[in-house]
Amino acid sequence: MDKLASCCLRHGALPSSHNYSKPYNAERPTSLPHRPRRRRSIIPVVRCILTNPNTAKGRHSTKPRHADEFSSGFDFEQYLTAHAKSVHEALDRALALPARLEHEPDHHWLIESMRYSVLSGGKRVRPVLAIAACEFVGGDAAAAAPVACAVEMVHAMSLVHDEMPCMDDDALRRGRPSCHAAFGEHAALLAGDALLALAFEHLALGYADAGIVVPAERALRSVAEIANAAGIGGVAAGQLADKACEGRGSRVGVVSLATLEHVHVHKTARLLEAAAVSGAIVGGGTGAEVERVRRYARRVGLLFQVVDDVLDVTRTSVELGKTAGKDLVADKSTYPKLLGGVDKARAYADELLAMAEAELEGVDARRAAPLRQLARFVAYRQN
């Protein structure tokens, strides 16, 4: 069994100091140019592993849907903007300097570097995904608030560490200096560590602090899910595997498609998956509902990375708000490179989108609409 298959099986079914915030921009994504659909998957091995058995048997169509087909009665832009704003405000409160530490300059520096990294904008895809998944299983959005904040802190930690000189050495993030460029390497390293710790402190105390009633068993399951996604079952392992692939992208056949999928299932997809799964758990989802959400989110997570790889070679640094073309400079394998070009990578993105949408079929359209539109937002984003 290849590496990707064993990887997927291991994860189950697929397994107020200064405010650095800036207005959230939730422009409706621009559709990619129309491309004719291929009759057969361009990546048989990946399609085989990722496809739901029901889909494989033809019970669900994998034909992509047009965005306007599901837009009636649901304003996704408003939904995304409202939840992103509420999450941003909650993160601002969670990262406020405690009054008892106001006269401790070291604590000021640490808190400021953390706030700089978390409150700098961003799409807030992971926290909104957690909220949408919670609502998908019939839960109240408030139940997912601590999860939403926690996954965004973990995500910010991963970016802070990923950008450091010992990793990807990137001095630009969200259109301004990376944390280590603004505060120094030692502060960035510690800010990332502190954000990871704060994420779990917030998960443990956030419900009681906000007066939200969620059974302890659900909260503990969400802790375990996010912890696994941050560590050896996700981001940390994926980042190490990604570093191991550097300098090998130009040698044909050295890095296989299965290896590339292994890297990004861990480095990118796993945290998005954990966000959605944790939202479904605290929302009171059944075992079957949670696994449906897991399969959906795994595909959206890989979709996010495929689109990232395409944007890296088709957009400028100004457009992206981060350094464009850095994968080429680091000689990394990417989806456009391994699949034979940008058009084929986009075709694979279409397949992942269709498979994610297939997981939402048979569910009340109003409950599924946020997840469906969120997948399309990821697919057609321009930065």
TrEMBL record:
PROSITE patterns in UniProt: POLYPRENYL_SYNTHASE_2
Record has Transferase as a keyword: yes
Keywords: Isoprene biosynthesis, Magnesium, Metal-binding, Transferase
Ranges where the record places region Disordered: 18-37
Keyword Phosphoprotein: no
Molecular function GO labels: metal ion binding; prenyltransferase activity
Domain of life: Eukaryota
Pathway: Isoprenoid biosynthesis
Cofactor: Mg(2+)
GO BP annotations, alphabetical order: isoprenoid biosynthetic process
Cellular component GO terms, alphabetical: cytoplasm
TM segment ranges: none
Family affiliation: Belongs to the FPP/GGPP synthase family.
NCBIfam families per record: FPPsyn (NF045485)
PANTHER family, sorted: FARNESYL DIPHOSPHATE SYNTHASE (PTHR43281)
Name of protein: Uncharacterized protein
Lineage of the organism: Eukaryota, Viridiplantae, Streptophyta, Embryophyta, Tracheophyta
